From TrEMBL:
Start and end residues of each PH domain: 4-103
Binding site for ATP: K162
Organism: Palpitomonas bilix
The protein's name: non-specific serine/threonine protein kinase
Residue ranges occupied by any AGC-kinase C-terminal domain in the UniProt entry: 393-463
Protein kinase domain span: 133-392
Keyword Manganese carried by entry: no
Catalytic reaction equation(s): L-threonyl-[protein] + ATP = O-phospho-L-threonyl-[protein] + ADP + H(+); L-seryl-[protein] + ATP = O-phospho-L-seryl-[protein] + ADP + H(+)
């Protein structure tokens, strides 16, 4: 059985309009070629569907012999990328891997039986599996797979199916983070967080069945509206306060707040998603040193490598409130090193052309306090002092938790299956599961034991084997 090869690495890409050359981190897998500004970025700068695409090495011009071009679908349009490698050998390796994707992609559904990719036998159960879902639309892509809108055949319920490539998780040392996300999603239940309904696996892939939230993410809505009015900012911020409060009470630090990770539901309320960077078992005084997160939202103590705790979440909330209010993060720079310097040293500036209440400015300043011991939300009080700030005076938090506060903005939706709030470059993709040529060993497969889950049941696959 021949499958689609996965590959990743630094390459230099020719700009489509300005035609300058930029170094990007490329990831090939699951039928798409995506490129990122940095290795750790979760959102690609661009992507191309290589199914039925064309890949051609440059053999005519000796000066460009290390280049190749790949043509595929970007949304509903055809697009060609011109890419330069360090050597002819590297070029040939990428061309071969890409041609494998073009020729070898098939529906994985025919190849998910036990032992199809290895001699490791997956635990069996009567829980939900791939055959229980109808695939409707592709609604997102990441470095390790894609997200699809699916319908459960037995109930007609809609869910988001997050599909992760095991081999790519192993190669990029993301297995533990994926398991942590699975674990956290199981244990937290909150009105403003995405919930996990099922989790299962094939020899090649992991499947997370999550709440389907169809209003789009805050990043997309910010791009359309440029900035949000006060009532909108206040509601989203209040809901984030309750979400962080709940996570912190469970000893969990989120560490990756940004507009892309906040989804808007049909009712206008938010749902926090993507728990891949969470840190567990964080007592009130515990510290960790891992450098992770999105540059614009990093707290000073993360950049300084001084050790940090839950207070980094409150810093990121301050950044989010500022961005929702003014349309961009307070310390933004295209140069990441300069941005870190700004985070460490620059004062918070409030553009005078945007009329903002004193309470809004005061809350932002107190959340963006560089000393975590003085930052609002620090210590045992955690969210209590933030809830009591004058900015949140109009909010009844008990009513908020019951969703009895009417949202000032609701996304336009024609029905439950409406995917218009998702990027058309995803929703226009052909709906299929891609077969991966993976031969993971027993040792590697064992890393994914305990992944299976069904909401409302405490039974895991580890217990099923007894």
């Amino acid at each position: 059985m021949t499958g689609a090869q996965s590959k990743e690495g630094w390459l230099t890409k020719k700009g489509h309009i300005i035609q300058n050359w930029k170094r990007r981190w490329f990831v090939l897998g699951d039928g798409s070629l995506s490129y990122y500004a940095n290795v750790k970025d979760s959102r690609p700068k661009g992507s191309l569907i290589v199914v039925d695409g064309e890949v051609e090495p440059n053999t005519q011009d000796k000066k460009k012999e290390c280049c190749f071009s790949v043509t595929g679908m970007n949304g509903a349009k055809k697009k060609t990328l011109v890419i330069q490698c360090e050597s002819v050998r590297e070029r040939d390796e990428w061309v071969k891997a890409m041609q494998s994707n073009v020729k070898g992609l098939e529906e994985e559904a025919r190849h998910v039986k036990e032992g199809d990719s290895s001699d490791y036998v997956l635990p069996t159960s009567d829980k939900a599996g791939l055959d229980d879902f109808e695939l409707l639309k592709v609604i997102g892509r990441g470095a390790f797979g894609k997200v699809m809108l699916v319908k459960m055949k037995a109930t007609g319920e809609l869910y988001a199916m997050k599909i992760l490539n095991k081999e790519m998780l192993i190669r990029r040392n993301q297995v533990e983070r994926t398991k942590a996300e699975n674990k956290v999603l199981r244990q937290v239940a909150h009105p403003f967080m995405v919930g996990l309904k099922f989790a299962f696996q094939s020899p090649e892939k992991l499947y997370l069945i999550l709440d389907y939230v169809n209003g789009g993410d805050l990043f997309a809505h910010l791009q359309k509206q440029r900035r949000f009015p006060l009532e909108q900012v206040r509601l989203y911020a209040a809901e984030m306060v309750t979400a962080f409060e709940h996570l912190h009470s469970q000893g969990i630090v989120y560490r990756d707040l940004k507009p892309e990770n906040i989804l808007l539901n049909f009712d206008g309320h938010i749902r926090l998603t993507d728990f891949g960077l969470v840190k567990e078992e964080m007592t009130p005084d515990a510290k960790t040193n891992s450098f992770c997160g999105t540059p614009e939202y990093l707290a000073p103590e993360i950049i300084d490598n001084k050790g940090y705790g839950k207070d980094v979440d409150w810093w990121s909330l301050g950044i989010l409130i500022y961005e929702m209010t003014y349309g961009r993060p307070p310390f933004y720079s295209e140069n990441t090193s300069q941005m870190y310097e700004k985070i460490l040293k620059d004062p918070v500036r409030f553009p005078p052309q945007v009329k903002v209440t004193d309470a809004t400015k005061d809350l932002i300043l107190k959340l963006l306090e560089r000393d975590p011991k003085k930052r609002m939300g620090c210590g045992d009080q955690d969210a209590k002092t933030i809830r009591e700030h004058p900015f949140f005076e109009p909010i009844d938090f008990d009513k908020l938790m019951r969703k009895e506060i009417e949202a000032p903005f609701k996304p336009q939706l024609s029905g439950k299956e409406d995917t218009s709030n998702f990027d058309s470059c995803f929703t226009s993709e052909e709906v299929q599961l891609t077969m991966v040529d993976s031969h993971l060993s027993k040792k590697h497969q064992k890393q994914f034991e305990g992944f299976t889950f069904q909401a409302g049941s405490k039974l895991t696959e580890d217990e099923e084997e007894d």
